[in-house]
């Protein structure tokens, strides 16, 4: 007689099966409780606390003392080593597997006979398979314990780390592992998930339900024969294949490891070792497993600190299991680095991969960055990369991005084929739910029949687990699910291309993340260093490249030092460091890197400039212009008591020496493009400036501007003489003035250092309390300036010098802030006398327009946006630009233009931005467009001042390089990576239109060859259909809008 058929309630049936494999409920009688059927203590545990993250060979020579389970170890970031002595019982000789189970409630590393074998942590890699250890004999191995978890040592997810945290050693024991039970658990889990997540409109959901119910009925806990019988039922179900037209999911293992975040750089080195050694161990048991891994810096760390592990990785790369992707040095921020920094990320990244793996990456990989510059597609393609993968835009708070697979088009028209994995995660668990979400979430179904699924524990590392691979084994070809295969990014993209891309949509411009906009401002010190050092390294490369043309200096280019500095700068551009979303210790590490770069670069710059000077008795002050246009500006010479140098009589051909308020000599100079000139020969005629003090205001005037400034430093009027109009539309009600400091409440929903929410704009508080009223500082022919000081609160203040120089088209604000606030946001605003529906912002190698209105949800989501050196709002014939030397956050709504200055979040760094800050910004009204009025050039000038130094006559006069078209900017001049006789010049079209330009040089150049940003010559040596020829002392180029062009210039 058959058993009674019971009507099946879906919820009860599913829960019954879930409880049967639960690790929480009924483990004394369910299947999960039989996964580790035998347990035994280890023979002994010995411990050694060490002072730092020391290598294995050194650690094992230390003195170890006996310890036991239950003890706690710390403090945070400390390292403890353990020697585990054990003997496998002879009675376990017939067991499937014997493992060492470990839980120190922290991260740890297993060392087996001097080989880094595997990572351990309390969440997903809890034991280590003991292979090659005969039963009945004594054995030992070492475990390196790190006093931190996968996500550091803070409370919650983003809380600051507790420096005194300890970690309990709660488990160290030998266990047997029942492989048959493990397999059956994952059969049941897969069927439960299919029954739960396949829609009830699909009969396959109910087939899975009844199948798993049958399996539970078959199983008798403790009876292996019943397990095998239940598995046969599962295998029959899994053998039913899907249709030929079903969607294909390309599954790829991944361990997203932040190069620093809630832990310091030094701990990331070990995170990489733990995660990657675990992955290699899994590959030994799962030959189809593919693991995708980015960031050349992390590979290089492992190469240096764990050479044996790196050699295993190299062999796995050759077998196409360990897949390098990205092509960049680190997964950098996608908004804040300069265009040249983006180039160097790819230059150093691709060269590293080519050197160590003999292959370049063809997929740009940036899954966790807070937005993506509209110039990245061109840079990506210039780096020899065709494809791009990210998923971060799934985090957008307001609008959902409309595509999963699409063409991303940059501001120059370059395109790269882009994919957003539809599961909206770079670290899924490879469950049925993730697979079904991948298909359901694909926004281009019908256009594309393929999607990527990334699986593995990430952010703090860990990577894929054995459980994830077991799940994927079961769902490869199962009716009711898409086809799933272990794959690689290139295989995915090639499948898409093979089926055709003509039907794909395009997205033009930036990929703007509607979240984390506070990262444009947080940790202002890091952002200031970044901007300053980007220009400083540029200048060092320029002067030493020029030295290559001087007899005797070729071969003395400081390549090693520049490589080291660039790699440090690029490391700090990681997407949780430069944005400021990291713990205090990371900030301190980054600042140390910056300080080392600054010290080395400063010396190299002076050495390079002196090398450009000939030995001569003609001593004097010299000025170096590092930009490719002629510029006139006021410079300050060092005071005699500060520095030995030429006497004031030799400074300039002027009747009287002009001093500023600090006693420095001021000179107005006019310097040729990219040239080295004496101050005497470059001095220019002066149109005097003047200060007029009246009741309630002070006027600063030069030939371009008349600024009326009140006692608080607010600009009541900024008259542009040529346009005969005021740049501002001020209003006393609400305190809308030029240079009005405003304070906003800054309390996000969760991500403290990351987010500024739109509602902060509703909390505007003008700062109107003066410490002292405005005072005149400088009042001479070359410079007029005033000083103001304001209270922000009883703890914070602003001190500012507002100045106007002879010949200068902008009013400059040199600002010092003492900042000790809590969840406040400081900005400065300017109410412009301009009407425009768009504002324009400087980005990498170009500019971008964004709306000033809130018409749509896409418009209103851009309440805080990124800009680099300048932002501009213009109507026909007139506009106003806001320049800065180290800020990135902007907002332009209506006619109000704001520059974001300082934030004060408390997590994950409770001291973020506290202390003193110095920065400069300037306001520049202009006639015509910002292009023709020189806004771009003036912003460069503000960020890259003339370099003044005491020296002697240069080896050669005139411009080293110059361009006859202001639309074309020479961004970089450097030595070629592999040839001391070749200089690389990188330039770009900056106005947004086609441009014809002639590049001239006083250097002896024999020929010019176009190359990509990796310095590889391009076919046919042509640019936009025109052959590149160096004729005499020049080359003529035809550029498309925003086009980046790199040239190899061969020195004679």
List the SSEs and their pairings.
Elements: H1 10-20, E1 39-41, E2 44-50, H2 56-59, E3 65-67, E4 72-73, E5 79-87, E6 97-103, E7 107-112, E8 115-120, E9 127-129, E10 138-146, E11 167-168, E12 171-177, H3 179-197, H4 203-218, H5 224-238, E13 248-254, H6 265-285, E14 291-293, H7 296-305, H8 307-318, E15 322-324, H9 339-357, E16 363-365, H10 376-382, E17 387-389, E18 405-409, E19 415-419, H11 432-440, E20 450-455, H12 466-474, E21 483-486, H13 489-499, E22 506-508, H14 524-547, H15 559-571, H16 584-611, E23 619-625, E24 631-637, E25 658-659, E26 665-671, E27 675-678, H17 679-682, E28 690-694, E29 697-701, E30 705-709, E31 715-720, E32 725-726, E33 740-745, E34 765-766, E35 769-779, E36 783-791, E37 797-805, E38 811-819, E39 824-831, E40 838-843, E41 846-851, H18 857-860, E42 865-866, E43 870-875, E44 878-884, E45 889-893, E46 896-902, E47 915-927, H19 935-943, E48 947-952, E49 961-963, E50 968-976, E51 979-989, E52 995-1001, E53 1005-1011, E54 1022-1023, E55 1026-1027, E56 1030-1031, E57 1034-1039, E58 1044-1051
Parallel strand pairs: 13-14, 13-20, 13-21, 14-15, 16-17, 17-19, 18-22
Antiparallel strand pairs: 1-12, 2-3, 2-5, 4-11, 5-10, 6-9, 6-12, 7-8, 7-10, 18-19, 23-27, 23-48, 24-26, 25-26, 28-29, 29-30, 30-31, 31-32, 33-34, 33-39, 35-36, 36-37, 37-38, 38-47, 39-46, 40-41, 40-43, 42-45, 43-44, 44-47, 45-46, 49-52, 50-51, 51-58, 52-57, 53-58, 54-55, 56-57
